[in-house]
Automatic annotation (TrEMBL):
Pfam families per record: Glyco_hydro_18
Signal peptide: 1-19
Identification of the protein by name: GH18 domain-containing protein
Keyword Signal: yes
Organism, as annotated: Orchesella dallaii
Length: 403
């Protein structure tokens, strides 16, 4: 049946005027072997690494050592976060630390260095972001001052991480719906236009939850107006710690990473614009009963570790506790010890996500954050930056060992 169909199609093709091109795809030595120009290769995948400036505030044992910055693993490093000044509605001058100089030095290695505005903390004052986007004159002034700020400080692009239009701090309001949603896209469109002349890139970081996206984002409009979208495909538990959960599931029951990507594709985003978030942090829980050590069991937020924040631990801390390690196929991994339980991405989880990104010709992978991977290579004994390396290798990028 199949063979007959193929023969029929072949006959049809041969009889039409494009026969020359069709036969030339199976050249024999006697034929003119010039084939049509192959399609241009896709742009190389991105490895977008956020750097958290608060890594400099950690105590000595967990503080990020700037001399360990990865010189050639990330294609983009995003300095986070700058904050928005609530009165002038421009980027706050005091947002940048003395660590910036080391980050900017990465430009000499070919890394693109970008500034991110917002983040969860600054978005607690979402009202100021809303005021800025919802007034055309203020937007224009914001763009003018931002271009100047980025150029003065030698950044190559801006990333916007307002959490979130319409859904301030995760709570969506009907009253804000049309204004925030439409004017956020207007801001991006105007920024993009304003940035072209100065060759500055524009990206956004977005919620992975469909419940937020449906209210906050005109997905097609956003994707059209930015260079790429950083999907924050982690923390699906949105910081609620009522039961154990794998916080950055690959697949499985929604919501999951694949689920979020599919939603953005369905709503009109080009695959190459989608950059998939991969966490180098784990979400930690204290189990109600130590024997309830699987996902979906009652639990509360885990005790603070070296990152000084309850409920969160760095990969370089988790990897040293291999007891009771479990992997749920195609979903993710977790570790338990006594009444402590951690959901994490290990090397295998990152490899799987990287393979998926490559297979689906997405834009690349995004790491939150480079300073919670095993940057020194001394904790996990898997080399320096084992998770970022796994992402790079999985995407098929040239393997560049960090000396
Ligand atoms: C093959 O054909 C193209 C035009 O169709 C011509 O330009 C080219 O010179 C030919 N090459 C050979 C090796 O005959
Ligand atoms: C980080 O540390 C510096 C210096 O100790 C301090 O001024 C700043 O407030 C700290 N920032 C945060 C967010 O903890
Ligand atoms: C940071 O790393 C450098 C080079 O490995 C080392 O000389 C220095 O002592 C480290 N600093 C801290 C505070 O650990
Ligand atoms: C930041 O500094 C620039 C140049 O000194 C100044 O024009 C601008 O008003 C300052 N911005 C804020 C928010 O203070
Ligand atoms: C957070 O997640 C919980 C459980 O999935 C859900 O009930 C709650 O509405 C979410 N909160 C926000 C602000 O999205
Ligand atoms: C634009 O900036 C990128 C880095 O972000 C750089 O690679 C590229 O060469 C620049 N292009 C021009 C025309 O300056
Ligand atoms: C990627 O594609 C290969 C070849 O088709 C397939 O074997 C593999 O399962 C895919 N992996 C993922 C994670 O999609």
């Amino acid at each position: 049946m199949e063979k007959i169909f193929i023969a029929f199609v072949a006959a049809l093709l041969l009889s039409c005027s494009h026969a020359q091109e069709v036969t030339s795809t199976t050249p024999s030595p006697s034929q003119n072997t010039s084939t049509p120009a192959p399609p241009p290769p896709p742009p190389p995948a991105k490895v977008v690494c956020y750097y958290n400036k608060l890594s400099q505030n950690r105590s000595d044992a967990t503080k990020f050592n700037l001399t360990d910055l990865p010189k050639s693993l990330c294609t983009h490093v995003i300095y986070s976060f700058a904050t928005l000044d609530p009165s002038s509605l421009s980027i706050q001058n005091g947002s940048l630390g003395s660590d910036l100089e080391s980050i900017l030095a990465l430009k000499q290695e070919g890394v693109k260095v970008i500034l991110s505005l917002g983040g969860r903390g600054d978005s607690l004052e979402s009202e100021k972001f809303s005021r800025m986007v919802n007034n055309g004159k203020i937007r224009t002034e914001f763009i003018r001052s931002t271009v100047r700020f980025l150029r003065d400080h030698h950044f190559q692009g801006l990333d916007i991480n307002w959490e979130y239009p319409v859904c301030w701090n995760g709570y969506c309001s009907k009253n804000r719906k049309h204004a925030d949603r439409n004017n956020f896209v207007n801001l991006l469109g105007e920024l993009h236009k304003g940035f072209v002349f100065y060759n500055l890139s524009l990206s956004v970081a977005v919620s992975p939850l469909q419940s937020i996206a449906d209210e906050a984002y005109d997905i097609a409009g956003i994707a059209h107006n930015v260079d790429w979208v950083n999907l924050m495909t982690f923390d699906y538990t949105n910081g609620t710690f009522v039961e154990t959960a794998i916080h950055s599931p690959f697949k499985g029951p929604p919501p999951s990473t694949v689920d979020t990507v599919n939603h953005w594709l369905l709503k009109g985003a080009h695959p190459r614009k989608l950059v998939v978030g991969i966490p180098t942090f784990g979400r930690t829980f204290t189990l109600a009963k130590p024997e309830w050590n699987v996902p979906g069991k009652p639990a509360t937020k885990g005790a603070a570790t070296g990152l000084n924040e309850a409920g969160i631990a760095a990969y370089f801390e988790i990897c040293t506790e291999p007891d009771n390690y479990q992997r749920e196929k195609d979903i993710g991994s977790y570790i338990s010890k006594g009444d402590q339980w951690v959901s994490l991405d290990d090397i295998k989880d990152v490899q799987l996500k990287a393979e998926y990104i490559k297979n689906s010709t997405l834009g690349g992978g995004m790491i939150w954050t480079l300073d919670t991977d095993d940057f020194s290579g001394t904790s996990c004994k898997q080399g320096k930056y084992p998770l970022i390396q796994a992402l790079r290798n999985g995407l098929g990028l040239e393997n560049k060992a960090e000396a």
